[in-house]
Amino acid sequence: MDIIRILCAIFFPPLGVFLQVGFGMDFWINILLTLLGYIPGIVHAVWIIARK
């Protein structure tokens, strides 16, 4: 299942974070990072998925 989350995180980072933690603070941080730059959103999403 982590592989699916990581693939989602590469194409749409907030979706990968949502699948991992739901509507939490990490989700909103990831949306902000994705809006500020696509790469920071990907890095944050993969870090959240790999951390848990």
UniProtKB/TrEMBL annotation:
The keyword Transport does not apply. It is found in: Membrane. Keywords: Membrane, Transmembrane, Transmembrane helix. GO terms for cellular component: membrane. The chain crosses the membrane at residues 7-25, 31-50. PANTHER family: HYDROPHOBIC PROTEIN RCI2 LOW TEMPERATURE AND SALT RESPONSIVE PROTEIN LTI6 -RELATED, UPF0057 MEMBRANE PROTEIN ZK632.10-RELATED. Belongs to the UPF0057 (PMP3) family. This is YqaE/Pmp3 family membrane protein.
